[in-house]
Design brief:
Layout: H1 8-14, E1 26-30, E2 33-36, E3 41-44, H2 47-50, H3 59-69, H4 82-94, E4 99-103, H5 106-125, E5 131-135, H6 144-149, E6 166-169, H7 174-180, E7 185-190, E8 193-194, E9 200-201, H8 204-217, E10 220-224, E11 248-251, E12 262-266, H9 268-271, H10 287-300, H11 303-327, E13 330-336, E14 339-344, H12 352-361, E15 364-365, E16 367-368, E17 373-376, H13 384-410
Parallel strand pairs: 3-15, 5-6, 5-7, 7-10, 10-11
Antiparallel strand pairs: 1-2, 2-3, 4-12, 8-9, 11-12, 13-14, 14-17, 16-17
The structure holds pyridoxal-5'-phosphate (PLP).
Pyridoxal-5'-phosphate is lined by residues 105-107, 110, 139-141, 191, 195-196, 224, 226-227, 252-253.
Length: 411
């Protein structure tokens, strides 16, 4: 059946080189374990970058995938379908929203949100109201509009002129936000906790100040919950624990547990500015993705599951505190629920990737969030035994990195 022999090296021969994947090639996953093509197993602390919230090959999701796969995959948006309508109803029953638009990724959900915000402002207030306020170090995706709005200039540079009217402010800086948000502001887009930017929680007072400033100036508040959403923080959406309700919320990553799907959620009045033909997608809202996401949302919105996320988050923090007592590695451990960032001390400045590589060599998969932060985003239902085993392996990996550093110093 396999016509071509492939391995990690094949990547360098056949792929556009925008990624630098690990040296091993995952072949199979179950729950919080992954096996590579050599049969070695790994404890997965990455969850596919906060995507496989229910672990790999969750039996209920596999069942829905099979059943819907034998029923109807794709029908185009010239028709609607039952799974997407059920998914919209379920999401709306759980949130502030009463309108949904489905896409296939976080970037596309944000693209829709930003386009909608521009439409609303221009139609309600006129062509001058186009300024989008965003934050330094934020991440909103890789389309040209979303890298321009994102707060990491390296992702937008070198592609020619960026869309006009975008401003980047320091995150969690209330005074800067109050000063910048004004009559020309069309929207403020913010991650309630920055993910890619280093796992930095938004201060509730800061988020409240954004809400107030948006209300004062008729601007829309967009929460990018692509990473924080669908149970990741121990709340179904992170906004639910901030006391702030956005006008538009974007969600993706965990929404499909790995089946590509994203969504923009908003209210009826705002949605009314997107009329037939104004925006669209071929795949968005297809019955296969929608059926899977509907099951994901049903399972993750269970209060007992969300409580488990908080407990597991505490367990990881306790284990990190223990590691820190022994190795003095972390300047700070941040985050919420099962999105946790451990920032390295000056002694290990810029070396997060070395820990990730060592972890892989010892059978644990781990993420970075910038050069100085180790990021944990495991399955929301990672079994305690896997957590323990993962930390045993991680400890060995840290011993190897720290030992190598001590050896180098002794020489
Ligand atoms: C990952 C991410 C995105 C982009 O999602 P894609 O599915 O990769 O397009 C957008 N915003 C945030 C906060 C993210 O973490």
């Amino acid at each position: 059946m396999n016509d071509f022999a492939v391995n990690r090296q094949t990547f360098d021969e056949v792929m556009v080189p925008v990624f630098s994947p690990a040296s091993f090639v995952p072949a199979r996953g179950e729950g919080s374990r992954v096996w590579d093509t050599e049969g070695r197993d790994y404890v997965d602390f990455t969850g596919g970058i906060a995507v496989t919230g229910l672990g790999h090959c969750h039996p209920e999701l596999v069942r829905v995938l099979r059943e819907q796969g034998e029923t109807l995959w794709h029908i185009s948006n010239a028709y609607t379908n039952e799974p997407v309508l059920r998914l919209a109803k379920r999401l709306e029953s759980l949130t502030f929203a009463d309108r949904a638009f489905f896409a296939n990724s976080g970037a596309e959900a944000n693209e829709a949100a930003l386009k909608l915000a521009r439409r609303v402002a221009i139609e309600r207030h006129g062509p001058e109201k186009i300024e989008i306020v965003s934050f330094k170090q934020s991440f909103h995706g890789r389309t040209f509009f979303t890298v321009s709005v994102g707060g990491q200039p390296k992702y937008a540079e070198g592609f020619g002129p960026v869309p006009a009217g975008i401003e980047h402010l320091p995150y969690n800086d209330i005074e800067a936000a109050r000063a910048a948000i004004g009559p020309k502001t069309c929207a403020v887009i913010v991650e309630p906790m920055q993910g890619e930017g280093g796992v930095v929680p938004g201060d509730p007072a800061f988020l409240r100040a954004l809400r107030e400033a948006c209300d004062a100036h008729g601007a829309l508040l967009i929460f990018d919950e692509v990473q924080t959403g669908v149970g990741r923080t121990g709340f179904f959406y992170a906004y639910m624990d901030t006391g702030v309700t956005p006008d538009i919320l974007t969600t993706a990553k965990s929404l499909g547990n790995g089946f590509p799907i994203g969504a923009m959620l908003t209210t009826k009045d705002i949605a009314a500015h997107f009329k037939v033909g104004v925006h669209g997608t071929t795949y968005g809202g297809n019955p296969l993705g929608a059926a899977i996401a509907d099951k994901v949302v049903e399972l993750v919105s269970d209060p007992a599951l969300l409580e488990g996320v908080k407990q597991r988050g505490e367990q990881i923090r306790a284990k990190l505190a223990e590691l820190n007592q022994r190795f003095n590695l972390f300047k700070e451990v941040r985050g919420k629920g099962l999105l946790i960032g451990a920032e390295l001390t000056a002694a290990y400045e810029g070396r997060a990737k070395d820990f990730v590589n060592a972890a892989a060599a010892h059978g644990a998969m781990l993420l970075i969030a910038g050069p100085n932060v180790l990021r944990f985003a495991p399955s929301l239902v990672i079994p305690e035994a896997d957590l323990d085993e993962g930390f045993t392996r991680l400890t060995k990996a840290i011993e190897a990195v720290v030992g190598a550093a001590a050896d180098a110093q002794a020489r």
